[in-house]
Structure formats: C-alpha cells, structure tokens
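### Sample
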Amino acid sequence: MLVFRGSPRKSHPSVLMVDEMLKEEREPPRSIRRIRHLPQSADRILDGPELIDDYYLNLMGWGKSNILAVALGRSLYLWNAAGSTVQLLLTTDADDHPTSVAWSVDGKMVAVGFASSKVEIWDAVALQQVRILEGHLARVGSLSWTWNMLSSGSRDASIINHDVRSFRRVSSKLRAHTGEVCGLKWSCGGDLLASGGNDNLVHVWESSKMGSSKYLHRLTDHRAAVRALAWCPFQPKTLASGGGTADQCIKIWNAQTGRCANSINTCAQARRSRTQTAWHDVDAV
C-alpha cells in the first residue's frame, strides 16, 4: 500500500506484527535460568572423632583446591575430596588445641587459630609452618582472608588484621564488640569486612579505614550470637547473617545503607553453611 506525502498515517496491525517479529529476531535470546536442585542426603559421611561441640568455634574450612581442613581435638587434618586422602597437618601440646581454621584465597595457605590466643599460618602443600602471629589475649575463634590480609577474631572482643607480607606484629586492631568475635567474613572484592559477636551484633568495616575502630555500620536486629556470615556472590554489597538459638533467623542486609532487606526464620540456630545455602537458593529462583 502506498502512502502519499501529506496524507494521515493509519495503523496497520499486519505491518506492526511483522515489525515485532523482525525485532524479536534481531534481539538475542534471553538466557534461561536453570533451577538448581539441592541434594536431600549426604554424598559422603566422614568420621569426626574429638570434634569439639562449640557453637562459637569455626573448626572446618574448604580450600580452593577442594581440600577440607578440619580440627579434631588437638590435631588438624587435610582431607582431599578428589582422592579421599587424609594428611595430618599439625598436633598441639596437651594444653592447647585449634579453635578456628581458614584457607587463603589461592588455597595454598591455611591459617589456624588456637585456644592459647596465637595464630599459625601453614603451607598446605609443603605441610610446613610459615609464621606465628600474636596479639590476642584469649582464644581465636574466627578467621578470614582477603588476599594478603588475614583477620582474626578473639574471645578478648578484638579483631586483628595481619598483613602477611609484613613482619610487623599487628597491622591494625579493631574494637567494637563487647563479647567474643565468633564470625568474620571478607567480601568477595576485599573492600568490606563483616564481624559477628556474642554480643548479638554485626559490624561492617571498610578496608580503607582499618586504622581506627570506626565501623561503617552496626547491625542490631539479631537476638543471639552471630557466627554465620556470608556475602552474596552476585550482589557484592549484600550480606547474610545468621543468629543462634534464641534468634534462629537469617537476615539479609544492604551493606551500603545498613538496612535489613529481609529476615528468614529457619527454626534453628544458623550456621555458616546455612547462610551460604541461602544465597544458592536465591540464585536458583
């Protein structure tokens, strides 16, 4: 059909339909998000004799190389999931025992906190001790890495940041909690550190302001100790925190504003694995 210049245009449904079809052909197809099915039973069951039953301790950690570090009594073992092999990394004296474990980002080093207040860094490949870090006055129940920085939380209510490249005794010390620091987690980008304590509080710290104890946010909604912390892998400024028996909630926070975006009642005390599973569930929806 010809349309002469100056004459009014009329709507032509058939022409519009063709235009829409051509537009859809030009647009790239939208990616289809697959529903992730979580297993309902354990893939493997490992014996854990002498595993200390203490909610405030962090006695297991997965490394980038798919190796599980687990503290059993006075010893720490490395279990390789690929070959199901077990190696003894260390054993302490009778008056001491591991209280926390954390892998470095590259999976080559493992940090171990102890009841005696010290922290040791071990080469997980050579099975050799690299350094001993001191500065706390009580047991070290939480650890977290971000590249060359290792943060440790203690029953003395303090957080110490250690630059593992430096031989200085302490890089910086943070004090804001009034109870044991039982949860620590660096964000994926390494710009924010979250800490949870036996005082029912969560603090968010900026890496650029570690020289003082001025936190970015203090989050006060939990009603029990906060040990479980996990940063969202696809929304880097979003944090999940889980409270203990008297709280039983996982809370989702906007780390930029400090506001609670959501609260999930789990009907059980939240551990670190539960908060991490929450992010997988959100991603699968």
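Residues 10 and 233 are 51 Å apart (CA to CA). This sample (WD domain, G-beta repeat) is used throughout the tutorial notebook.
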